[in-house]
């Protein structure tokens, strides 16, 4: 029976010392048709292992309804890795961080306001148990102890950064063992004292996460774990981007210098990331370091493979370093995936959101403007509507509080935007006959790290005019999962030339594909919204940057006619987009 064991300060596999050289690829951030390509490139770079998180919200998007196909086919991803001779590290802890929506937790957990997350709370653990009852039996046949490629699994993720509930950590550990997980179990934390104190579990190997100063990090780990193999479970060799900030890069020479320090310590390493991929749909996460910081659609991470899978200078620099520590065969890479500029796509149809509500949503009536989770919604947008009596003069409309960005309309006319990071009220005079108030709120991604993860979306308390709370609301959940039901009217040439009004609308256009290739959609002149290609939600765009083009993998296209739908919140100066052959990350 093959098994990864700890012997002294070494990992042993089938009786032989093993230095784990691993890279992270998240199956849920890469279209399945490209899994083999990315894994072949990981192996060609000199790695012997691939690591992946498991995103609970991908596998149980609605409570009790499980998904293990498409982007959720984790078993298929692991099998391909095994076929290529790679070991696999799986991190199925309920929480993953990963700059992923709500750190991988499903949003429906927030429907229960009294549930405590990531601790020994019975209501939370009951949900975890049901998920593990579905997930872990699927992984069990793929364990190395059963002839599969999985050599190790994680109990919880960077828990010491969040809490210190050892009863909870041990419950997860015992739950995995009880369900037949008999491979090496580990935890991973930052190297700070409080992180190690909070995150370690008796009898479980602790690993550390960092981007530099390996010697110092491992020395601190040794204070708490005097014996055992050293491993950097997350070597942060790049970084991710937030909207409204600069694009992050890390020079290749800086990366390989930090890598050499890890290897010179005799340690194993997992590159976070080897290949970042894409936050498709509404799955980007957010940080909250003083203010709300939503993550962009691209998860390129400035790492060894670009978002579209091309080897970067870091790939070759890292391979050169690895070749000095292990024997590598001659470099063999799969055929490069073609990139193509399909040119300009004119939008020929328009569907105004307010005209399409009955096609997109069933209204619910509530006394207060409830957050998304209280009306059974996880992602997308939510619309709150009521009437205000008049006359009223000199008062502000206050959203208390908005998560995350709201467009306000009075009698159908746009009057302003309220943002979580800029929550000022909007002056709103009401005529004698009163007015219709509509507030469209965008969930821009739940916080995925730190103490502010309980992050319900929409309006969390109430909406008031001056100090008077407004009651009697019609609420329209707008998850925008399916945009095929929309009715488009023809967008005339003179309208297109003049630009479009600042009213949330869907725009439709088609383009022909004679040869399938990866492409990138540039939205010059558009303000903020979401793009769908052939019904697949690519993710968000925003003129705030830094990202200026969204990646479209070739498998999302088809030969012949392809449909683009752009949901634009504010209007565009030119209802056309451009399909280009290169990314633009800022």
Number of helices: 11
Mean pLDDT: 97
Give the low-pLDDT segments. none
Side by side, the strands of the main sheet go 4-5-6-7-8-9-10-11
Gyration radius from CA atoms, angstroms: 25 Å
How large is the share of residues in beta strands? 25-35%
What general form does the structure show?
A: globular
Biggest sheet, open or closed, and with what strands and sense? 8 strands, parallel, barrel
This entry's quaternary arrangement is single chain
Give structural notes.
The chain has 586 residues and is of the alpha+beta class. Helices cover 18% and strands 30% of the residues. It contains eleven helices and 33 strands. The strands form seven sheets. It has an eight-stranded parallel beta barrel with strand order 4-5-6-7-8-9-10-11, surrounded by six helices. Helix 7 (214-224) links the parallel strand 9 (205-210) and strand 10 (231-236). Helix 8 packs parallel to helix 9 (313-322). The protein is globular. It starts with a strand and ends in a 6-residue tail after the last strand.
Keywords:
globular; alpha+beta; 30% strand; 6-stranded antiparallel β-sheet; 8-stranded parallel barrel; single chain; 18% helix; 586 residues
Describe the SSE topology.
Blueprint: E1 4-7, E2 10-13, E3 16-18, E4 21-25, H1 35-45, E5 49-53, H2 56-59, H3 74-83, E6 87-91, H4 122-139, E7 150-157, H5 166-178, E8 184-189, H6 193-199, E9 205-210, H7 214-224, E10 231-236, H8 252-264, E11 268-275, E12 286-288, E13 292-294, H9 313-322, E14 343-346, E15 349-352, H10 357-360, E16 364-366, E17 381-388, E18 396-403, E19 405-410, E20 413-419, E21 426-427, E22 435-442, E23 458-465, E24 468-469, E25 473-478, E26 489-490, H11 493-498, E27 505-513, E28 519-522, E29 528-533, E30 536-542, E31 549-552, E32 560-568, E33 576-580
Parallel strand pairs: 4-5, 4-11, 5-6, 6-7, 7-8, 8-9, 9-10, 10-11
Antiparallel strand pairs: 1-2, 2-3, 12-13, 14-33, 15-26, 15-27, 16-25, 17-22, 17-25, 18-21, 18-23, 19-20, 19-22, 23-24, 27-32, 28-31, 28-33, 29-30, 29-32
Helix pairs in contact: 8-9
